[in-house]
Amino acid sequence: MTLEALALQGRPKTYPTLAASVTTRISELRKELIRESLSGSRQPSHRMEYVANIHGIEFINDSGACTLNSTWYALENMSRPVIWITGGADRGNDYFMVRELVEQKVKVIILLGDDSQKILESFRDSEIPVIRVRTMAEAVETGYYIGKTGDTVLLSPACPSFGMFENFEERGIAFQKAVKSL
User: Fold this and answer.
1) Whether domain 49-180 has CATH 3.90.190.20
2) Does the reported pTM lie above 0.90?
3) Can you give the residue ranges of every domain in the chain?
4) Per-chain mean pLDDT for the chain
5) Parallel, antiparallel, or unpaired: how do β-strands 49-54 and 57-61 relate?
6) Are 61 and 175 in contact (CB under 8 A)?
């Protein structure tokens, strides 16, 4: 079975999946049962969730990434150029921790929400363009219009959604709706 055939994608999910597979083989479970189980699992909602591919631009909902560490994992697993939608209530994140990874993977940063000054300051002297928006619909539309075939628009906020949304689920649903209205 190839890694691409796994239902749960990305390094943070692949390693535990492979470990579980080895464990089941040691327990002498049938290969067919293991393969069926690993290819049939569903990706959790709002965690690296594929939403759509529109004109060659992928839209990924990682609204559950409410910490910088979660966003690091999301960015680390991106193989296409990223238009990164980030922002929310600041928790005192040190965005310089992800700066090198962002400079490798991200072509545009879209800042969502009023409490995003710290993110703006962290990337101000970077060559990555930073665009501020006020609504999720505006963030998605901006990502779509500046995106090109082969890009990924990734909602991975690195922050909680306080103030703008009730929770990360509501934020993720707003992202999904905005993508589907393109």
Assistant:
1) yes
2) no
3) 3-40, 49-180
4) 84
5) antiparallel
6) yes
